[in-house]
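Researcher: Dear colleague, please comment on this protein.
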Amino acid sequence: MIIMVEKKKKHPSFRVPNFGAKSRKRVPERWRKQRGIDNKKRIERSGYGATPKIGYKNPEELRFTRNDGTVGVLVHNEAEMLAVQKDKNHVAIFAHSVSRKKRVLMQKLADSKGINVLNRFGR
């Protein structure tokens, strides 16, 4: 049983300035640090959106965890799958490079050992 003491912090979505404006439809949804000399977002004027800062960071014990308190471990083969079994706070994630035939074999192993696999229905 997994007990979470704290929840992860929520933070705003960090976007480029004027994201969503009618004249900027081609602006992709991503973050770029502002470097212009007169940039309003760089000098943190109100109304221009949030900027990533160290204060948005989560506590060290909560970093890289999922919302249910488990940690996803990338698995490439059966040996790595069995290593995941030893710790109940870990769940397996099949690597992208694992073939379909190998996934079926590893999924049978995971079912027999009681290992939770997040992307079991992928590919």
